[in-house]
Amino acid sequence: MELQVESQRIVTVCAGVGSSGKTTFALRYLVNREFACRFIFDPEGEAAQRLQLEPTGDAFDLARHIVRGWVLFHPEKLFGSNFEAAFAFFCEWVFEKSRLFPGRKILMVDEVWKLCPNRTITSELQDCVRTGRKRELETLFNTQTPNQLPDVILNEVSEFVAFRLQSNPALTLAEARGFQRAELAALPDLSFVSRTDRGGERRGRIKI
To answer: How many CB atoms lie within 10 A of CB 171?
Structure first.
């Protein structure tokens, strides 16, 4: 099943409480759409486990895995537990490599706000978010707390995919973007509402 609302999405936020379906949605989107390469910052190894793909741990693997179209970066080997430095490195590497070959590329990050102290983002991530389209690079951010995302990301969002949300700050943010608070709070697992910056809206459910 191809999960999409807008074929020209550039910056996508997928939000929802734990186990509501947002990660399944995001991974299926990566699998089902045609991308020249998919870049995933995967410090916990969750994406590698769910996709049953080999993680990338060093410079040799980074170059090798571009060819297969999946780069799941597990930073421990190069950066230990310094995830912020690892993320800045990966964003810069992704942005640079994206200009070297044609076709759509995408960078996916879970809970990116944890890597953005004081809701500020690094220059490396700003390049990906703000000018990635010039290199056919999209970004996809999954989160349980969209209200904690940096404004630089929220201001660039072209599509917001909402699964069930429960906290008042998260619902308030969604409501400000045109969603119905009561509807999102009551969504069953695997159901979503998606809105684009062009006014498009869709309701759907992931099939298991």
So the answer is: 20
CA distance 122 to 101: 24
Give per-residue burial for 23-52: e unless 16+ CB within 10 Å, then b: bbbbbbbbeebebebbbbbbbeeebbeebe
pTM: 0.93
* Tens digits of residue pLDDT in 52-91: 999 999 989 999 999 999 999 999 999 999 999 999 999 9
Determine contact, residues 138/128, Cβ cutoff 8 Å.
Answer: no
Rounded CA separation 117/177 (Å): 24
Tell me, letter by letter, the H, E, C secondary structure of the chain.
Answer: CCCCCCCCCCEEEEECCCCCCHHHHHHHHHHHCCCCEEEEECCCCHHHHHHCCCCECCHHHHHHHHHHCEEEECCHHHHCCCHHHHHHHHHHHHHHHHCCCCCCEEEEEECHHHHCHHHCCCHHHHHHHHHHHHHCEEEEEEECCHHHCCHHHHCCCCEEEECCCCCHHHHHHHHHCCCCHHHHHCCCCCEEEEEECCCCEEEEECCC
